[in-house]
Amino acid sequence: MSIDQATVRRVAQLARIALREDEVTHMQGELNAILAFVAELDGVDVEGVEPMTSVLPMRMKLRRDAVTDGGFASAVVANAPACEDNLFMVPKVVE
Amino acid sequence: MSDLTSLTLASARDALRARRLSSRELTLAHVEAMERARRLNVFILETPDRALAMAEAADARMAKGEAGPLEGLPLGIKDLYCTAGTRTTAGSHILDGFVPPYESTVTTQLWRDGAVMLGKLNLDEFAMGSSNETSYFGPAVSPWRRPGSNASLVPGGSSGGSAAAVAARLCLGATATDTGGSIRQPAAFTGTVGIKPTYGRCSRWGVVAFASSLDQAGPITRTVRDAAILLRSMAGHDPKDTTSVDVPVPDYEAAIGRSLKGRVIGIPKEYRLDGMAGEIDALWQQGIAWLKDAGATTREISLPHTKYALPAYYIVAPAEASSNLARYDGVRYGLRVPGRDVAEMYGNTRAAGFGAEVRRRVMIGTYVLSAGYYDAYYLRAQKVRTLVRQDFERAFADGVEAILTPATPSAAFAIGEKSSDNPIEMYLNDAFTVTVNMAGLPGISVPAGLSAEGLPLGLQLIGRPFDEETLFALGGAIEDAAPRVDLPDAWWAA
């Protein structure tokens, strides 16, 4: 399966990566090279095989249902490119 | 280059304990070596003041008789581990200037045990690469060169800075991480030892995530014993990582030197690739002979889905990466590139902040997870992953205790030698290591000899889940039997 330029643009939009028009062809070639490589999997018989959902067969531990951490908003926003009153600042979303 | 930087981690530990040496002396020698080795571009950030403060604190504790297992030993930290108050970049522009307010669990345990931090080590961006060439900070350079040539070689990747720093004797050992071979391949390229433990053995908390079902922390060192010492401090259960496993951490060092009499080692025929260099096969045969001499029995085994592991990895890993890297949006940390609205700000930030390899993987990961393609790609790859794991389970159920393979299909190559136009060429580096991540197993790479070009080659041992001890015992036997690999003289020292 190979992908066309419209798909490359759509995937870039989904991935939130701005792609210049002159980068589309190059990206298309790279993605198709990878897709051609992984196409080898089409030849594997996976009938009745369970997909791996846990790396090792183990029960996940449950923790206490309680607040055990938090209360440091200023540390959380300390690395933000823009913040005010311990809130993250973003460009206007709603007009 | 002083003699103090040529000590193994174990011998430095013993000298400190015997009070023949202070951590301050040992740390100063390493700080000096680090500062003179800037040509190698191994450290992204040097922290000499912090190192000396930690060394003095370690000396004070030792004077009171309170030495921890790593007391006073200077280490390098891969810049994928968050270090509180010290910039952490993951080798990416998008995290430039990020100063974590928290410390990773693994490094917390190293400092708990008395270790000293020299600085943060170079790596491929977000650990995506096999040569350290995708780092925003430029490639780390291997201390190794082909005899008679000045061409700069790659130290491997993604833990290229870790492997190069250890081989160049800039630190006694280093932390690293391995998602598809990122500990074992650079160790093999630099004549050092690297172990990726069982998935769940080390906490992933505070380690910048690449592919969460594959990522594991581990050490790179100059000897098998040193790796055993470091792993013991790095490993252990952490309630903050639900995938970390609550089983006791053994004294790995005690496993070295254990008798190998009657131990059954599998030799998987699928690792004999078409067109594989004759010297790689010869090294493998030599490894088989060494283990037999040490009393082990070898047996040919079949792992029929081996060749599907790498293509399946290049679906699973980018898919998980595309999800993990969604957090870099220019809002909470790192780079922000403005746009007319919030969506354009995201797109501009991620286009400018991610390098070419990361953009490529996020794109492919987004594609294979997108509506209509999930079953054809991601679900199928996860089924193939089950088959890869079952291959190993069958071999272990038949009595095989560990598996011996080459670590890499070739020795190190030159910087710029593998074209960036064909990503697959670079991906093939991980053909022998990636199966281990897909199955969640432990694997160790041990130096075993030199290529015809005079560059290091490694052998890999793959173990049963949580049986790192057998890998240390077998790795120690290979280390003892193999011709001594003399690390290169310090041509880089300014």
Structural class of chain A: mainly alpha
Shape of chain A: flat
Secondary-structure element series of chain B:
HHEHEHEHEHEEHEHEHHHHEHHEEH
Beta-strand portion of chain A reads: under 5%
Widest sheet of chain B: strand order? 4-6-5-10-11-9-7-8
Main sheet of chain A: which strands, in order across? 1-2
The number of distinct β-strands of chain A equals: 2
Contiguous runs where pLDDT drops below 50 for at least 5 residues of chain A: none
Task: Show the helix and strand layout.
The complex is a heterodimer of chains A (95) and B (494).
Chain A: H1 5-14, H2 21-38, H3 73-76, E1 83-84, E2 87-88
Antiparallel strand pairs in A: 1-2
Chain B: H1 9-17, H2 23-36, E1 43-46, H3 48-63, E2 74-78, H4 105-112, E3 116-121, H5 160-167, E4 173-178, H6 184-190, E5 193-196, E6 216-221, H7 224-234, E7 264-268, H8 278-293, E8 297-301, H9 306-324, H10 342-353, H11 356-369, H12 375-397, E9 402-406, H13 423-427, H14 434-439, E10 443-450, E11 456-463, H15 468-481
Parallel strand pairs in B: 2-3, 7-8, 7-9
Antiparallel strand pairs in B: 1-3, 4-6, 5-6, 5-10, 9-11, 10-11
Helix pairs in contact in B: 2-3, 5-6, 9-11, 9-12
Describe this structure in words.
The complex is a heterodimer of chains A (about 100) and B (about 500). By secondary structure, chain A is mainly α. Chain A has helices at about 5-15, 20-40, 75; strands at about 85, 85-90. Helix content of chain A is about 35%, strand content about 5%. Chain A starts with a helix and ends in a 7-residue tail after the last strand. Chain B is of the alpha/beta class. Chain B has 15 helices and 11 strands. In chain B, helix 8 (about 280-295) links the parallel strand 7 and strand 8. In chain B, helix 2 (about 25-35) packs antiparallel against helix 3 and helix 5 (about 160-165) packs parallel to helix 6. Chain B is globular, with a radius of gyration of 21 Å. The termini of chain B are close together. The model of chain B has no long low-confidence stretch (mean pLDDT about 95). At the A-B interface, helix 1 and helix 2 of A face helix 9, helix 10, helix 11, helix 12 and helix 13 of B.
